[in-house]
Design a protein that fits this description.
Layout (H helix, E strand, L loop, with lengths): L6 H4 L14 H10 L1 E5 L4 E3 L7 E7 L1 E7 L5 E8 L3 E2 L1 H6 L6 E4 L3 E7 H7 L3 H27 L2 H13 L4 E3 L2 H8 L3 H13 L3 E4 L2 E4 L2 H5 L5
Antiparallel strand pairs: 1-8, 2-7, 3-6, 3-8, 4-5, 4-7, 9-11, 10-11
Helix pairs in contact: 6-8, 7-8
């Protein structure tokens, strides 16, 4: 039987994760190696709104869609967390229930940091600073979402969500029905707005795949 590799060797890109930014190499490796690897072959809810999180999630591969569920059961897409992003740390530290739900994509791998290990990491001032930076960026993002929802027209909302969904990749493989759901309009309206973005040279389409040609221009005036 072959030797099982440590997480810091299996997932070297996570050494550059924002939550570990600026920390010494030994701390980064020790933190990652204490985490438990979990693989989800199918889309799976790993954070459930209203339920308690007992540890922090660090995404290694794939992504997690974050949604808020209203009293009537309506799902409102909030954000897409990708490789290197952390989830559930605020709820774990505060011992409060999850403020939203998170569902993985197919073939997603996460590293799970249990509450006690997260508590140990919090003894490092640099780790606390990184958590604070992440919370600040989420606050800025939340303000943008509220502003866009109240004042943005359909075209602006679509541009904003394409900007979010593209994240660290320049290709989006989502159906027009999915985009219509997160933007809050009909599929026909999405089709028209995508045609406008193609005419502006911001995107290209190949079947159901949307390629972002100019992400900076796409997000200009929306969210920086």
């Amino acid at each position: 039987m072959g030797r099982i590799l440590e997480n810091s060797i299996r997932f070297p890109h996570l050494l550059r994760a924002e939550i570990l930014d600026g920390l010494d190499a030994s701390f980064k490796k020790a933190f990652l190696n204490k985490c438990v690897v979990k693989v989800y072959a199918k889309p799976t809810v790993i954070l459930e709104q209203g339920e308690h999180a007992f540890g922090m999630i660090l995404i290694a591969h794939g992504y997690v869609d974050i949604s808020f569920i209203g009293e009537g059961g309506q799902h409102m897409f909030l954000a897409r967390a990708k490789a290197g992003d952390a989830l559930g740390e605020t709820e774990t530290i505060s011992e409060e229930p999850c403020a939203a739900s998170g569902e993985t994509s197919a073939n997603t791998t996460i590293l799970y940091c249990a509450g006690p290990n997260l508590g140990t990491a919090l003894q490092n001032p640099g780790f606390i600073k990184n958590l604070t930076k992440i919370s600040y960026k989420r606050l800025v993002y939340d303000n943008w979402v509220k502003h866009n929802a109240q004042f943005g027209d359909v075209g602006q909302r679509l541009r904003g969500y394409l900007y979010i969904l593209s994240g660290k990749a320049d290709r989006i493989r989502e159906t027009q029905s999915y985009l219509a759901n997160v933007v809050g309009c009909s599929r026909q309206t999405i089709n028209r707005e995508l045609a406008v973005l193609r005419a502006e040279g911001l995107i290209a389409q190949r079947g159901s795949e949307i390629e972002i040609l100019d992400r900076k221009a796409l997000g200009r005036g929306l969210y920086a």
